[in-house]
Amino acid sequence: MSGSFRGEEVTGETLRQLGEIEVIRRLARGLGQAVNVLVGIGDDAAVVRSEDDGHDLVLTTDAVIEGIHFAAGARSAAVGRKLAGRLLSDLAAMGAEPLWILCNVAAPARTSFRALKQVYAGMKRIAARFGAHIVGGDLSRADELHLHGFAVGRVPHRRAVTRSGARAGDAVFVTGTLGGSILGGHLRFTPRVKEGLWLRKSGWPSAMIDVSDGLLRDLGHILRSSRCAAEIELRKIPVSSAARMLGDGVSPLDHALRDGEDFELLFTVPAGKAEQFIRSWKDTFRLRCTRIGTIRSGPVSINLKEAGGSLSRIYGLGYDHFSCRVGKRP
Question: Is domain 33-156 annotated with CATH 2.60.120.260?
């Protein structure tokens, strides 16, 4: 739509002018929050009270759209896998056990039924790997393929890990390696469900998020929710081999900082527990986990520490759906 809905002329600021974060903030402000909602708009997922056996329900939704999240030539099963993987990654960031997935499909009439079956096969395989079941959805027509998913998980009452618990002195960690997902990783990633469950059960993280919009942007979400700052050591950023292969004039480090769709876990651990956490992680997982910085007090900001010790403040925080900017370092 170009500025108007049917029969209704819309004027004023556009989504591009406001940017994704401000759009969400303004929409949330007008919706309010019910008394049984423990975590509302602004985290990886919502958390609502359940009347069952001492658990809260964790609710999340996401979409993959042709031309935005995948190219027209992508394999159907990989596209379905990506949608379910994104939902599972959100649940992982809350430390939630996955339960159910629903998928709304909007597809061109020319789409073959075989291709649609492969979309669902891709969703089913990754969902089953982590104990989730596809239980419904909807089907409609569109000019290009859209998949819109909804997932439900659960956590013990009031045990969900949110973005808002980071405190000055906490260590900042990230799993895996970052950058270059455009080379195919955005379709093949493994959501860190097992790691997220272990982190929540062990009580290590004070705040957590998955890296979907880029390391700097997603760290910014934690900082805004926790009302603090961070210092990141650039030499410790775990740059992926894919980021080093791109050769597009952007440094591998900048790809690791901003690319997004890595779907690793980014989290903070209280300072007094950091060394013990590192030992426990190594005893439990083969997956790499790197300390990349420290939470600081002060206004929300991210300072990047160069190898020589100098500090610089960044411009921009990563991918924005409406502005399509990724930002630059000075």
Answer: no
